[in-house]
Amino acid sequence: MKPAKELKAFAKVTLKPGESREVRFTLDKEAFQFFSPDKHQWTAEPGDFILMAGSSSRDIRAEKTITLIE
């Protein structure tokens, strides 16, 4: 069973009050893979994934749904 959320990338950003900054991440196919005991290999299943950004897993401030195609 895969976990509900997985950390795939992070950056520590310090901002002053009122300041903003753009942060970019590149997630390749490996970021969406998991080990399949049935196949005995790493695999990525096609489907929808929700990318979340926030100050912590409990403080999500932005979300984007993407679709992984085989």
Describe this structure in words.
β1 and β2 form a beta hairpin. The strands form two sheets. Strands 1-2 form a two-stranded antiparallel ribbon. The protein has a two-stranded antiparallel ribbon with strand order 3-4. The protein contains no helices and four strands. With 70 residues, it is an all-beta fold. The protein has a domain at 29-68. Helix content is 0%, strand content 37%. The radius of gyration is 15 Å and the shape is elongated.
Determine the strand fraction and express it as a percent band.
35-45%
Q: What order do the strands of the largest sheet run in, or round the barrel if closed?
A: 1-2
Give the structural class.
Answer: mainly beta
Terminal Cα span: 21 Å
Give the secondary structure arrangement, pairings included:
Blueprint: E1 34-36, E2 41-43, E3 47-56, E4 59-68
Antiparallel strand pairs: 1-2, 3-4
Features:
mainly beta; two-stranded antiparallel ribbon; 0% helix; 70 residues; single chain
Short description:
The chain is built from no helices and 4 strands. The chain has 70 residues and is mostly beta strands. Strand 1 and strand 2 form a beta hairpin.
